[in-house]
Amino acid sequence: MGDLFSIEALEQMLYALPGIILGFSLHEFSHAYAAHKLGDDTAKNMGRLTLDPVAHIDPVGFIMLILFHFGWAKPVPVNTRNFKHPKRDDNIVSIAGPISNFLLAILLAGVIKLFYVFNAPDTFLVNIITQVLVLGVVVNIGLGIFNLLPIPPLDGSHLLVNLLPTKYSNILMEHYNTIIIIMLVLMFTGVFGYVIGPAINWALGIVFGIYGI
């Protein structure tokens, strides 16, 4: 616990904040935008079809993120009854968030590559910007992979529920609260890191490898 509040950890969190805020905002905007294009304006009518972080940041989730490196944004409301093809369209809306994080990570990695291409000077400011960009890549890869996990209330759970026969999807939803508690325990004990850590490192290798970094 002490490491979470060390000077180094707090400094890293400060550098990671731009990537986190941008990642959260883009993620939720992408859900809202996909839903809007598919016929559901629930999120749009609630002011969520925007990149403004204020519309998406959950105060409690943000504080938890700062203190314990685990947090969340406000979920985008979706009414699947407004979709022509409820299951298919819900899958598209669900996958839109993680995909936006992966694309943002690729974009940020491209900016880092430009620093190398144009021989950016080795100054204090450039080093800080580079750290912010690198952590932005890491954070958004992490957000994308984390949200694809088939665990309620993550995006991946929507994909799983829509793919499973109704009988099994109902069983999953009946144990919704229990699954969330188990997930939180795994996160705070650090076990979760061993599960998604290798996947994040694999994805980072691909993203940075695109630019030969």
Description:
The longest helix is centred in the middle third of the chain and has 32 residues, at 86-117. The chain has one domain (2-210). It contains ten helices and no strands. By secondary structure, the chain is an all-alpha fold.
Topology at a glance:
Layout (H helix, E strand, L loop, with lengths): L6 H31 L4 H4 L7 H4 L2 H10 L17 H32 L6 H24 L7 H9 L2 H9 L1 H13 L2 H20 L3
Helix pairs in contact: 1-5, 1-6, 5-6, 5-7, 6-10, 7-8
Spatial gap, N to C terminus: 33 Å
- Total helices: the number is 10
Q: What structural class should be given to the helix and strand makeup? A: mainly alpha
As residue ranges, the low-confidence spans are none
Provide the descriptors you would attach to this structure in a database record.
213 residues, mainly alpha, 10 helices, globular
Give me a quick take on this structure:
By secondary structure, the protein is an all-alpha fold. Helix content is 73%, strand content 0%.
